[in-house]
């Protein structure tokens, strides 16, 4: 199904000498490529290269940074089919979904270029304060230095761009540690940036185990850690990071409220898409659908019928709706979660049984609150449907988890929609759309326990820079 790639060293000056990691296709187990591993013993060389890269990055003009990012976006567009097929082979996304991710990545790079050109600082109105009438000045946005970017497998291209794009725009160097499951897509993006004119030492790509990650996170020379991944890893990073900036996106458990006056046809279609995109491996994917009792039966029946029509299979085929999960272990874990819920009293309405790395879209009802598919992020194509009788009950159910990224509301009432946006505890609330909508320019991050900074190009760029004030006494 896929061509073999061998990636044994990324750029001059940093060649890994450890064991080779074999990257395989989750759909069929075929070897996609090989990547040599770094170890914690390589830390001094990694840091030294990144330190040198930070000096180079800082010296690049804003025009040069923006031009690199714009050229990379253009080059990505020219090679979009090649990149999309690598995403399919390495991550298991369907070809349709992979193409969309490539297009989004182009936009992320372009948005980063805009920040490089325009978000340089502001005039400070010193004379607005009595006694400072003869002062004038401004502030600029300066690089932090070295940014450590740790990225996940589920958006192996665009989530890398969301970290390295703003970092480059801000004049920083980056140590990039992509997921061990999808390293080739990340490396391809870095190669495109270098081909577009970025000095190679500005990004240092490393691969390795937990010990390497721990050494990098705790390194004093690193000024910021930008991490997307799970809560346990996030807690370990926060404990080890020391005095440096930390930005984390730690997952969600998206609730969707469907009120009795909603357009059910639209709600069903949007929720099916939002739940099963990327085989449910989507931190803002629809997980808990909370439906008013007056329309619950109709919604449930139509949702299950629409789910049953989805095609699960070979992700390289245009007709496939749902590809494999990232691994057989992930699919097995999803099945175990469903079986535990059913054993506790839940009703299985659709799906529920893994076949290798493939796990079909699965729908549950009457799930006890103690079960992980209700309380925690499933990160699998699993949906729980629950009913409510009052607005207050719906919001209470939605807000039960201690962390949240996105939520959604379907209603024809502007009053209901506005009240819900105020009372739902989430980083974003989508009205009459699925929870999984994201535009790459908007602020993106969690609420409650999961709130650790914001991504979205402008907001990440500002996190990755620091202000310097210049004041002049006339």
Essential attributes:
474 residues, disordered N terminus, single chain, 7-stranded mixed beta sheet, 15 helices, globular, 5-stranded parallel beta sheet
Tell me what you see in this structure.
The structure is a single chain. With 474 residues, the protein is of the alpha/beta class. The chain contains 15 helices and 20 strands. Helix 2 crosses helix 6, helix 3 crosses helix 4 and helix 3 packs antiparallel against helix 6. The longest helix has 24 residues. The N terminus is likely disordered.
In terms of quaternary structure, the protein is: single chain
For the biggest β-sheet, the strand order reads 13-14-15-12-11-17-18
Distance between the termini: 70 Å
Helix content estimate: 25-40%
The overall pLDDT average reads 95
Class from secondary-structure proportions: alpha/beta
Computed over alpha carbons, the radius of gyration is: 23 Å
Proportion of residues in β-strands: 15-25%
Q: How many individual helices?
A: 15
Broad shape: globular
What is the strand tally? 20
Write a brief caption for the model:
By secondary structure, the chain is α/β, with parallel strands linked by helices. The chain contains 15 helices and 20 strands.
């Amino acid at each position: 199904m896929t061509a073999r790639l061998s990636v044994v060293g990324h750029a001059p000056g940093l060649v890994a000498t450890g064991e080779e990691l074999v990257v395989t296709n989750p759909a069929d187990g075929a070897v996609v490529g090989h990547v040599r591993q770094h170890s914690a013993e390589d830390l001094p060389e990694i840091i030294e290269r990144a330190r040198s890269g930070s000096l180079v990055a800082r010296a690049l003009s804003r025009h040069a940074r923006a031009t690199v990012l714009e050229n990379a976006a253009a080059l990505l567009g020219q090679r979009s089919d090649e990149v999309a097929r690598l995403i399919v082979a390495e991550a298991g996304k369907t070809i349709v979904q992979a193409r969309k991710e490539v297009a989004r990545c182009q936009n992320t790079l372009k948005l980063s270029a805009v920040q490089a050109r325009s978000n340089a600082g502001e005039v400070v109105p010193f004379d607005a304060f009595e006694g400072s009438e003869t002062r004038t000045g401004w502030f600029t946005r300066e690089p932090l230095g070295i940014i450590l970017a740790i990225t996940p497998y589920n958006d192996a291209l665009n989530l890398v761009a969301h970290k390295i794009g703003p970092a480059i725009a801000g004049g920083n160097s980056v140590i990039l540690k992509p997921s061990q499951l999808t390293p080739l897509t990340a490396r391809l993006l870095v190669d495109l940036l270098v081909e577009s004119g970025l000095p190679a030492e500005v990004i240092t790509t490393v691969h390795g185990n937990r010990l390497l990650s721990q050494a990098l996170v705790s390194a004093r020379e690193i000024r910021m850690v930008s991490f997307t991944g799970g809560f346990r890893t996030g807690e370990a990073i926060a404990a080890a990071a020391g005095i440096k900036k930390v930005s984390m996106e730690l997952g969600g458990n998206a609730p969707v409220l469907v009120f009795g006056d909603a357009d059910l046809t639209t709600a069903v279609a949007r929720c099916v898409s939002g739940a099963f995109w990327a085989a449910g491996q989507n931190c803002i994917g629809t997980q808990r659908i909370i439906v008013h009792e007056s329309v619950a039966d109709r919604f449930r029946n139509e949702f299950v019928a629409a789910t049953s029509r989805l095609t699960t299979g070979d992700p390289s085929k245009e007709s496939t709706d749902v590809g494999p999960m990232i691994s057989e272990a992930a699919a097995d874990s999803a099945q175990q979660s469903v079986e535990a819920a059913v054993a506790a009293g839940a009703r299985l309405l659709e799906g529920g049984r893994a076949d290798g790395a493939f796990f079909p879209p699965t729908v549950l009802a009457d799930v006890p609150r103690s079960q992980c598919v209700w309380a925690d992020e499933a990160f699998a194509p699993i949906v729980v449907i629950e009913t409510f009788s009052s607005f207050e009950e719906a919001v209470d159910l939605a807000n039960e988890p201690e962390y949240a990224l996105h939520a959604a509301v379907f209603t024809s009432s502007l009053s209901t929609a506005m009240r819900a946006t105020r009372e739902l505890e989430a980083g974003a609330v989508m009205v009459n759309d699925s929870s999984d909508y994201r535009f790459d320019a908007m602020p993106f991050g969690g609420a409650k326990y999961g709130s650790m900074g914001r991504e979205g190009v402008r907001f990440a760029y500002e996190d990755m820079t620091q202000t310097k004030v210049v004041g002049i006494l006339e």
